[in-house]
Design brief:
Order of helices and strands: HHHH
Number of helices: 4
Radius of gyration: 26 Å
Strand content: under 5%
Oligomer: single chain
Shape: elongated
Helix content: over 70%
Structural class: mainly alpha
Number of strands: 0
Amino acid sequence: MRVSARLDRIRRVLKKTEVRSLSRRYFIANSFDGVLTSLGVIIGAYLGGVTDGLTVIGICLGAAIGLGTSGIWSVWEIERAETPESDTTSKRRCSSRLRAPVTIENSATNS
């Protein structure tokens, strides 16, 4: 598949409302994790006496790469696991409703 065809496919997928909502939600959650991790690294470096700023920045960048990879992978796995489950659950609920016995009560005959 050509690069332009792949980019077109990605654009079509990203135009869907549920994809934008989902990606925005996970982006914010993962960004918050990244900020807290970087803050922890900076505080740890300060308390540990690390005076070289480039070392701290390098550690924060490494943590950002790790958190970004983890965030993308976890979103992928969560959505992959949730989608078939919700489809199966919906089908099971619909079929159980169809198989349930139908009873019609008439108040006139019960009195």
